[in-house]
Amino acid sequence: MTEDIRALSAQYAADPSSLIFLRLAEALRLRGQTDAASKVAVQGLTRYPHLPDAHDLYARILADQQDYANAFDEWDTVLRLVPQHIGAHKGIGFLYYRAGDPDRALYHLRVAAELDPTDSGLRLAVERVAGGGEIWDVPMPGAPPERVARTAPISEGSDPFAGLDGARDRLLLVDAGGLRLGGGLVTPSGRDVSDDASAVLAGTTFEAGRAARMLELGEWTHLTIEGAELSACVLKPTSDTSLLAAMDAGLPAGQLAFLAERAAKTARAWLERVR
Amino acid sequence: MSDYAPLLDALTRLRGIRGAMVVTLGDGLPVAESLMGGVKGTALAAMAATLASRSADLAARGGLGAPRFLHLQSSDGSLLVAPAAPDLVLVAIAGRDVPLGLLRLEMLRMAERMG
Question: Are the beta carbons of A200 and B46 separated by less than 8 Å?
Answer without folding.
Answer: no
